[in-house]
Design a protein that fits this description.
Elements (H helix, E strand, L loop, with lengths): L5 H7 L1 H20 L2 E4 L7 E4 L5 E7 L5 H4 E7 L7 E10 L2 H8 L10 E2 L5 E7 L11 E4 L10 E5 L3 E4 L5 H5 L4 H11 L8 E4 L5 H12 L3 E6 L5 H11 L3 E4 H4 L16 E4 L3 H9 L6 E4 L6 E3 L3 H6 L3 E4 L2 H7 L2 H16 L8 E5 L3 H8 L7 E5 L1
Parallel strand pairs: 11-12, 11-14, 12-13, 14-15, 15-17, 18-19
Antiparallel strand pairs: 1-2, 3-4, 3-6, 5-7, 5-9, 5-19, 7-8, 8-10
Helix pairs in contact: 1-2, 6-7
Length: 387
Amino acid sequence: MTCPRAPSAVRAGRSMWVRCALWGARARSQLQSGVLAPRRRHGGAASYSASAQASRVRALIYGSHGEPAKVVELKNLELAAVGGSDVHVRMLAAPINPSDINMIQGNYGLLPKLPAVGGNEGVGQVEAVGCRVTRLKPGDWVIPANAGLGTWQTEAVFSEKALIQVPNDIPLQSAATLSVNPCTAYRMLVDFEQLKPGDSVIQNASNSGVGQAVIQIAAALGLRTINVVRDRPDIQKLMDRLKDLGAEHVITEEELRKPEAKNLFKNTPQPRLALNCVGGKSSTELLRHLAPGGTMVTYGGMAKQPVTAPVSLLIFKDLKLRGFWLSQWKKDHSPDEFQGLILTLCDLIHRGQLTAPACSEVPLQDYQRALEASMEPFVSSKQILTM
């Protein structure tokens, strides 16, 4: 038995809606008791078949804020019932981002109600849909529409409006890391300065997920990048990798402070846009190299130090200090605009102009290792939990 979709139900009248509601309530009751389990059906609507027990979900949950390795636990949950506007999703992969760590620690701008499933980003495959779902069907790939969804679990039931469809012909790692870092990179490159091909951008934390996306998207837009990184034992290897992505210049923070750094701008125009993810002295150095009237956009604070802007730079160069948070951008824009942003990035992926950051795939059960690795210094590989 299938539940009719909303348009036909409206045409058939209120009685059809009543039958739909009664069927959904009966199915939910049976699913929770373990009598029924969801099964894929050709045509997009959910169907159910007899099963000995309810589906079990494995999820990474934290019940209090603190150090992730101490408060995150792998637990078994029961799959929620699929309502008329719900979508049953089997998660495929989900990364561990700095925002995930900060959220667990309790020092992020958005904190879910506890206990909570970790993870703000990832990709899953639709297994079944409710009777009023119109945009999605089984087999589709989906990503979170907003942060706080809880992607570190093997499967879940989400509302349709909490999900955005992405093409299922892009690489899995690209889909899993699409909704945060590339979106942040694109918006910062196009929203703050009217840059044209040949203009340059300077950024710190260039080996981060956002930094790697900035390099590639900037190259696709015809922009030149000056990329600042911290010195490390394998610095030449890192520089080569970033240049392979399209970076024109890669320089350490120590080198940027030297007088010789001005030689960078003999053949490269002085940047009008700086992207800061570090703060402290690193952000001050970015400001020193901005062109008059330029803008520095801060989207992170890895050094946990304030942004210090010398008075002389503000007065005599009229520099602008701005901030960016993708979650706020989503609040200020419609879901269709975010969907359009995702499609723009997917087009770059299809054209080979945007790839996922360097990733290390880790099975969900090895989450402790992944959490620890994601918090180590000088890590250039993003940890991705695979389900």
